[in-house]
Amino acid sequence: MKPRKVAVTGIGVLVRDAIGVEAFTGWIMSGGGSPREFSTFDATGFRARRAYAVDPAPVAVRLADTAGGLGLCCDDADIDCAGYGLLAALEAVAMATLDADDLADAGCALATTSGGMMDRFTEALENGDDAARLHANAKPASPATIIARRLGLGGPFANFSCACASSAAALSFAYSRISTGDTPVMLAGGCDRMRQADFAGFNALRAMDRESCKPFDVARRGMVIGDGAAFLVLEDEDHARARGARPLARLAGIGLSSDSHHITAPRPDGLVRAMNHAVARAGIDPGAIGYVNCHGTGTPANDVAEVEALISVFGAGGEGPVISSTKGATGHLLGSAGALEAVITVLALQQRLAPAMKSTATPEDIPFLMPSQTEPRPFPGDYAMSNSLGFGGLNASVVFAGP
Amino acid sequence: MSDSFVISSAVYALGGHDVLPAVRRRTGASFGLFELRRLERTTFDDNQDAARQRHTPVSFRMSRMTGELMAMAGFEPDGYVGADTGIVSGSSYGCAAVFDLHRRLCKGGPRGIDAVRFAQATHSFPISMTAIDHGLKGPAAALVSSDAAGTEALVCALDWLRDGLCTRVVVAAFEDFDTPIAEHVACTMPEGTGSVSEAMVLLLVETAAAAVERRAPVLAEITGLRFHGRRRDRGAQHALCLRLPGAERGPDASIAGADDPGNCLGATDLIKLALLVTGGSPLGPARDRTVAGSNPVVDDMSAAISRAAMPERVG
Questions:
Q1: In whole angstroms, what is the distance from residue B191 CA to residue B186 CA?
Q2: Alpha-carbon distances of A391 from A23, A288, A302, B141, rounded to whole Å
Q3: CA distance A175 to chain B (A)
Q4: pLDDT at position B290
Q5: Among positive and negative, which fits the CA dihedral B315, B139, A155, B204?
Q6: Cα–chain-centroid distance for residue A308?
Q7: Chain center to CA of B142
């Protein structure tokens, strides 16, 4: 059987400074936001104290409005656990103009960092409180379960947690379910609350910049964490056209690989394999890629390895794609980062513009063009790539094609 | 499926050595009649090698069992190093080390978190350490999903093989019930009763062409895979069709006489599959079987092996 083509027919997004694609698009193209202190938990004991933390209150209000308008019921526990994801998923579904019958056949592939509310369960256990009352929604797949139930998704289901490569793994699973004909529609995305343990861990690793994340900047010192959610509706292209839906882009190829080298230090050859696989599966040459949304965490180790990998695939002569990292704008959403950056890559491809990099004031001397601090940079061609590198040497590359 | 894929090796470990203490560690509250069976850990606890120190109990076991899996599949050491070998894991809860970080934070504040433990605190740590130990450079992913997580991991492996990302995949499923998962599992059991077991199972799934080329043993040929759709009131199911080789092949010594695995949450499907393909199945010597796993997101149905009809789409 010939593999089916996979279209993107809807997207949804939620970050600290922008709820919804319309607000997000202009915001991200102009360089996004900056990290600041937050109240999600007490961060005063940490070396780095800033983040891109979403305020849950306006999200709950927006979700109540959106869900209520659709006749969906979401209780407080569901909103607490999966509210960000629910809102982004509902936006993607609305943009794709899917109805209840479409959703009954659709599947769900979600990415998370540690998923449900086990942190609160553990806290209650440690404090001698009645932990049992907090056991619901604690499992890692709880957000995915809530989203699947609330939206009535009856197709294939999977939840991935493989560090910062989680979203790409979810996209890969969703892509295969459609290309093989298992189901015509998949919701794929990422949804994460920022957890104190992750914040503490990256502080302990001294991987966090105290001020801001400055990808590909000579003064880069590390990452800054954020939270939020992003979803894509992936759909059999023939199915989409038959029901009159307008594809935003096509998911053309995905590559996955492992460095087999070190838990926290990336190695370029693994990412090279992932990029080459993705390009090959898209049926194109690397020269067809006009833009790469890099993993670009702003840590010294990541950016060096990623540039080296990019040179290996695209050459060092300046003929390669425009590159950028959007983590200086949104923060690093960890397991959900790949989904957010897939959405950004689709938006970039629609406008043929790479988002401005507001926090990168003194760019490194690398053989790739990058946007300025204030202006997005145009790029040519019909293809764009998004890279994800996870702890443990997990690499992923996703190639999108213009509609 | 246009290509043919086979299972050429299977190993597993089941809990049973240690039973959860009758009281919760912190609260002193009783677990009631609930029984939680633990995997043996003395090999990990007694090993003081520097290489072991980098591991968690789960990653240590997965790495060791991968060596056994490959040896049983007829590989020489290092014969499977490189980008042709991928690894994927499935689990319902994932790694307790991830949640232990929350406990340490509660107990010691920011000073309770150190860089080494944080680096170990991802659900993909076991597959990453196994990839590092064994030189696996193919695709790698970790599912922390439903009680059908093992089957979902197998689906990923077949995707990768079909798409040519690699020629063989180590497919792992496990459950790890260190604190606080044990306490959480207990909360989910109706009226504090029931029995759940830690487990780890690994299958080597590869293209038939690769297995034939190195004259590998074939435990089963995977002849079909399908997701069964759902309409509101029925759970989404996936079904895997197998063709088992002739009756002349006896059961592997390592799992002969194994008990019914009981409830191993996300590892149950693959434990049953391992039992089936290695001849340890209590279901008898049937040559063709369908292994069906449901999606408990909707129906909370448990995974099952049945003599169901072949799926509609085979190939």
A1: 9
A2: 32, 29, 11, 11
A3: 10
A4: 41
A5: positive
A6: 23
A7: 11
B98 touches chain A (CB under 8 A): yes
Say if residues A374 and A360 touch (Cβ distance below 8 Å).
no
**Interface predicted TM-score (ipTM):** 0.96
Which residues of chain A make contact with B238, given a CB cutoff of 8 A? 156
What domains can you pick out in chain A, each with its CATH number?
Answer: 6-249 (3.40.47.10), 251-401 (3.40.47.10)
Tokens describing residue A233: 């509706």
Measured CA to CA, the distance from residue B157 to residue B159 in angstroms comes to 5
Q: What is the pLDDT of residues A270-301, one digit of tens each?
A: 999 999 999 999 999 999 999 999 999 999 99
If one counts every other C-beta atom within 10 angstroms of the C-beta of residue B14, the result is 22
Ramachandran region, residue B206 (left: φ > 0; alpha: ψ -120 to 50; beta: rest)? beta
- Taking a contact as any Cβ pair under 8 Å apart, which residues of chain A between 111 and 150 contact chain B? 112, 114-115, 118-119, 121-123, 125-128, 131-132, 135, 138-141, 144-145, 148-149
Residues 6+ apart with CB under 8 A from B46: none
The one-letter amino acid code at B129 reads M
**Helices vs. strands in chain A: H and E counts, helices first:** 13, 13
Select from A198, A170, A118, A335 the least CA-distant residue to B121. A198
At residue A35, the 3 state secondary structure works out as: coil
Instruction: Say how many Å lie between the first and final Cα of chain B, rounded.
Output: 4
Examine residue B251 and say whether the peptide bond preceding it is cis (omega within 30 degrees of 0): no
Model confidence pLDDT, tens digit, residues A179-215: 998 899 999 999 999 999 999 999 999 999 999 999 9
């401005």: which residue's tokens?
A356
Residues of chain A with Cβ-Cβ distance to B227 below 8 Å are: 107, 155-156, 177, 182-183
- Alpha-carbon radius of gyration of chain A: 20
Cα–Cα dist A397/A169, whole Å:
10
For residues B261 and B293, give the distance between their C-alpha atoms in angstroms, rounded to a whole number. 15
What six digits make up the tokens of B236? Answer: 């989404």
Residue A358: both structure tokens together: 């507001």
d(CA A174, CA A104) in angstroms, rounded, equals 16
Name the strand (E) or helix (H) holding A126. helix A118-126
Output the average pLDDT for chain B: 77
Percent of chain A clearing pLDDT 90 (strictly above) = 86
Q: DSSP state, B228?
A: E
**Residue type for position B190:** P
Q: How far does CA A141 lie from the centroid of its chain?
A: 17
Contact A293, A343 (CB under 8 A): no
pLDDT, residue B267, reads: 92
Q: How many residues does chain B have?
A: 315
R_g over Cα of chain B: 19
Whether the Cβ atoms of residue B138 and residue B83 lie closer than 8 Å to each other: yes
Q: How far is A23 from chain B (nearest CA, A)?
A: 32
* Chain centroid offset of residue A290 CA: 20
B283: confidence class by pLDDT, cuts 50, 70, 90: very low
C-beta atoms surrounding A70 within 10 Å: 13
Tell me the backbone φ, ψ of residue A98, rounded to 5 degrees. Answer: -85, 140
Q: How many CB atoms lie within 10 A of CB B293?
A: 31
Q: Is A36 on the interface with B (CB under 8 A)?
A: no
C-alpha separations of A10 from A19, A21, A103 in Å: 15, 10, 13
Nearest to A165 by CA among B125, B151, B148: B125
Q: Which long-range contacts (CB under 8 A, 24 or more apart) does A68-76 make?
A: A72/A150, A72/A151, A73/A150, A74/A150
What would the two tokens of residue A44 be?
A: 């005063």
| A356 and A31 Cβ atoms separated by less than 8 Å | yes
- Write the pLDDT tens digit of every residue in B24-44: 444 444 556 677 888 888 888
